[in-house]
Automatic annotation (TrEMBL), chain A:
Organism: Copsychus sechellarum
GO-annotated molecular function: structural constituent of ribosome
Family indicated by similarity: Belongs to the bacterial ribosomal protein bL21 family.
Cellular component terms per the entry's GO annotation: mitochondrial large ribosomal subunit
Residue ranges of the TM segments: none
UniProt protein name: Large ribosomal subunit protein bL21m
SUPFAM superfamilies registered for this protein in UniProt: L21p-like (SSF141091)
From TrEMBL, chain B:
Alphabetical keyword list: Ribonucleoprotein, Ribosomal protein
Organism domain of life: Eukaryota
PANTHER family: 39S RIBOSOMAL PROTEIN L20
CDD domains linked: Ribosomal_L20
GO MF annotation terms: rRNA binding; structural constituent of ribosome
GO cellular component: ribonucleoprotein complex; ribosome
Identification of the protein by name: Large ribosomal subunit protein bL20m
Biological processes, Gene Ontology terms: translation
Gene, per the UniProt record: Mrpl20
Family statement: Belongs to the bacterial ribosomal protein bL20 family.
Pfam families: Ribosomal_L20
Length: 155, 149
């Protein structure tokens, strides 16, 4: 039968690779990455952590400032558990959505607990003799990320 | 004799007028023109500046999100994906990174962003294949070619 413009669909045909071969390839890659992690062939690690209802991209020796109070004294070590992504130069570990606790360990110390600079909140309606002025100073906490460690427990 | 109330001809006079005026002028010192020196003009300008800063604090969030979306769109187009395809496929593969972090990764970690784009592309193709099905016509439906005998 002759080929017309309607013989094949207009979108490009895509073939997925063979699942068996893919499984072998995946196992190989996982073993390689495990080997790299256990041998320690990575430089600086960065991680994406979900903390204080925000996501942060952090490395070691990093300073983080949160706009709220943390119930920990200055100098306390904190372990951040909700890690979404960890990466180095050659490999990245993407969590779906989180990575396991036995895989990554992110440690931080509370450095400072202060208030923010006094922000002025003002409302004004012209010709209505209405103005309200309020000064807000939010409490802030400063954390220093000490270390990010990964352990070779991939499967 | 005990005096319980002050005498009628004593009035209280303002003694800290200078500091009350300075409280307003200190916020106007970096303005342009006479409103950084003259109190009457400064009061109006400082009031408008405060009101604008409160409103801007709410709009900053919208503005930053639009900026992140533009950056992610640019980065994903470099890898051959459009922004809605990228974001929807990332969410379908249960990767819950927000736009701020994705924009930072696109700037500072190009290899990681490339791997995320590849993940989204693969999930997109799997979605298409799942939607297309087997490629056969469903049974019990009137075929397109009508035979007249």
């Amino acid at each position: 039968v002759a080929k017309t413009s309607l013989t094949s669909p207009p979108w490009p045909e895509v073939k997925l690779p063979d699942p068996v071969e893919e499984a072998k390839y995946h196992a190989e890659v996982v073993q390689k990455v495990n080997g790299l992690i256990s041998a320690g062939h990575y430089g600086r690690l960065f991680a994406v952590v979900h903390f204080a209802s925000k996501q942060w991209k952090i490395t070691s020796e990093d300073l983080i400032m949160m706009d709220n109070v943390l119930e920990a004294e200055c100098g306390d070590r904190i372990r951040m558990e909700k890690v979404l992504l960890v990466g180095a130069d050659d490999f990245t570990l993407i969590g779906r959505p989180l990575l396991g606790k036995e895989l990554v360990r992110v440690e931080a110390t509370v450095i400072e607990k202060t208030e923010s600079w006094p922000k002025v909140n003002m409302r004004f309606w012209r010709r209505h003799n209405y103005q309200r002025k309020r000064i807000i100073a939010n409490p802030q906490t400063v954390l220093r990320i000490n270390t990010i460690e990964i352990y070779p427990c991939l499967s | 004799m005990v005096v319980l109330s002050a005498a009628r001809w004593v009035r209280s006079r303002l003694s800290d007028r200078f500091w009350r005026v300075q409280e307003v002028l200190k916020y106007a010192r970096h303005f342009r023109g006479r409103k950084n020196r003259c109190y009457k003009l400064a009061v109006k300008s400082v009031r408008r500046a405060f009101v604008r800063s409160t409103k801007a604090r709410r709009e900053k969030k919208r503005f930053l999100r639009a900026l992140w979306i533009t950056r992610i769109e640019a980065a994903s187009l470099e890898h051959g994906l459009k922004y809605p395809a990228f974001i929807s496929n990332l969410l379908k593969s249960q990767v819950e990174l927000n736009r701020k972090v994705l924009a930072d990764l696109a700037i500072y970690e190009p290899k990681t962003f490339k791997s995320l784009a590849a993940l989204a592309q693969r999930r997109r193709q799997e979605g298409f294949l799942a939607a297309l099905g087997d490629g056969k016509e469903p049974e019990g439906i009137f075929s397109r070619i009508v035979h007249h005998h």
